[in-house]
Amino acid sequence: MKLTATILFLGLVLSSSAQNQTSYLLTADRVFDGVALHEGWAVLVEGNKIIAAGPKEKITPPAHAVKINYANSTLLPGLIEGHSHMLLYPYNITDWDTQVLKESDSYRTARATMHAKNTLLAGFTTARDLGSEGGGYSDIGLKRAIEEGIIPGPRLIVAGRAIVATGSYGPKGYDDDMRIMMGAEEGDGNDLIRITRGQIGKGADVVKVYADYRWGNNTSPMPTFSIDELKLIVETARSCGSPVIAHATTAEGMRRAIAAGVETIEHGDDGTAEVFQLMREKSVALCPTLAAGDAVAQYKGWKKGSEPEPEKIKKKRESFKAALQSGVTILAGGDVGVFTHGDNVRELELMVNYGMPVVDVVKSATSINAKTFHLDQLGMVKEGMLADLIVVSGDPTKNISDLRKIKFVMKDGTVYKNEK
Q1: Which of 9, 33, 136, 299 could form a disulfide with 381 if both were Cys (CB 3.0 to 4.6 A apart)?
Q2: 239-261 mean pLDDT
Q3: From 1.10.3720.10, 3.40.50.720, 2.30.40.10, 2.40.160.60, which CATH number describes the 21-77+380-418 domain?
Q4: Can you spell out the DSSP letters for 341-371?
């Protein structure tokens, strides 16, 4: 009798728990599932999971489900930002050196909480945060605060301090008698094993390495680490279960990083057809960060729209075109922080402007980013995936700027924005 009563009690508790889970039936004119566009679909969410997605007539919601519908709208997976720096903000407000050297980590983290919130409300429910830029491991603390529900923000993939070759990174130009804090952790040779393990041990999800940068007073970037040094980092990180990504703007820096086995190349400004072909062969993806160069050029005085494009912008267009023609996997990531957090769609608009088909850009910001970043439960609208969903007015597969018209944001089954 006692056993029977216990089983009945547990059954009632489980039934009550299921009843208390919030269910949502989401409908829109169109549903972009991460790959294709569908009309007449509905999406059923229970708890933090998508329970069903498909034609409305085939989905029967529970009686207690909250029904949300938007007219002239598109429902799609939460967007994924491929390259951001939550601890940075636009250099036309405060230059990079000042942010790194004069602002405390606590102050920068306080600012970052607003950056995270603005990113989420812009429809980006996940973001790779690729280096704290002098902020130590504050990005890891920020990630924890988001995960514990202390502050709102996107799901973060963090890189911690990042790794640079001694003498290559900044800040620069200060008296040699002074020890200036670097924007990343310096290392060389076999010591890179210890540094890589240390960053992962402190909570970095990915290891970021600078495969090239400006040496000394030289304004042109040059390769930094040797292939053997880069291989040391990659091998060490892999043994810890972590991917390595590389900042690389020169063709040689890219080639070395690809040969070493990195998963993604960030920027790729001077990439050639041959280098992009090598990336495709080795399954290395490109995160072009078009918006960063666009923003910096304007900070330096370029009057976009009324003046011819600077030479750097022209070259970036050419390299991006070569990347498209090569068939290399292209990620969506703008280097946000160089420009305003929450303005992430700026990168997607430039990808279209530089010649990438609109639908392919939306795929990059959803399913392709998710696959490349090993996010197996994100980037798609289908049964069993985590409930990261957004609704926008219009149809972003025809007009990418419609992604700015955010009406609804759900992350992990929790609604953060619901505009009527």
Answers
A1: 33
A2: 98
A3: 2.30.40.10
A4: TT-THHHHHHHHHTT--HHHHHHIIIIIHHH
